[in-house]
Amino acid sequence: MRLVWTTDLHLDSVSTLAWEQWVQKISSLKADGLVITGDISEGDDVVRQLQRFVSVNQLPVYFVLGNHDFYGSTFQATRQNVIHACRDSEQLHYLTDLSPLHVSAGTYLLGEDGWADGTVGNYEESTIHLKDFERIGDFKAAGEFAWKQQLQEIGRASAKRLRSKLEQLPSNAYQIIVLTHAPPFREACWYEGKTTDDNWAPFFVAGQVGNTLMEFSRLRPECNVTVLCGHTHHAGIARMAANLQVYTGAASYGHPDIEATISVAIDELDITRVSNLC
């Protein structure tokens, strides 16, 4: 089993030529599937972009959504549109809506959108103001004084869904791949070779999802957990426990690319970054 990993595509800002080059590069790798860790496009365009890809490349696509994917819409409307499109397609798999998928003997793939939930860092003194609050209907309707509570509730719901999926894993599962968008730990929130500070962390770290992953790694020490995420547009690796490692993917607006290939073997994962593919 060989997967291609890409993240933070922002296909609404990509030229036709850049899109075609990205698709051709994926095709040349002759993989068994494509995994996307969020920020595919914006609002209603997310479904169109997913369908556009599978119309020219019959690879199965396993994905979660990022914050930009809800811009110009609401959480419920976007997810309903995506779920409906996936149920009408054999290639599209929205992991937030699915139970863990069996990849090979003892190996499972699962995912959860996740959300930077204001639980890490210093929310009250942060100077960061995200476009999320203006571009996503749920935040815009609630108003500024409700934002922190909303972030924490969204993060709590994500963690709950993820916990349910982890509990569904059979006792013989020894290797899982988890897709999510926002880094689940401060140590995995990379920018220009450094990890985040208290100013940025409330809006870039999915703390409650991270707590759930850490709890699972302690309860199941025999199970190796590999997390793939994006959001920061900068790459890095964080080993959070002997059996828990987080890969954060890089991205550049207007230039969709491949972050890595993932070879799933019986006893290990081999993750090869794009810089080593040539």
Describe the 3D structure.
The protein has helices at residues 16-28, 45-56, 75-87, 132-135, 137-142, 147-168, 207-219; strands spanning 2-6, 33-37, 61-64, 92-94, 101-104, 107-111, 175-179, 190-191, 194-195, 224-229, 236-241, 244-248, 260-264, 269-273. The chain is an alpha/beta fold and 278 residues long. The strands form three sheets. It has a six-stranded mixed β-sheet. Strand 11 and strand 12 (244-248) form a beta hairpin. 44% of the residues are buried. The model has no long low-confidence stretch (mean pLDDT 95).
Alpha-carbon Rg, integer: 17 Å
Number of helices: 7
In this structure, how is the largest beta sheet organized? 6 strands, mixed
Number of strands: 14
End-to-end Cα distance? 20 Å
Beta percentage is 15-25%
Q: Structural class of the secondary structure composition?
A: alpha/beta
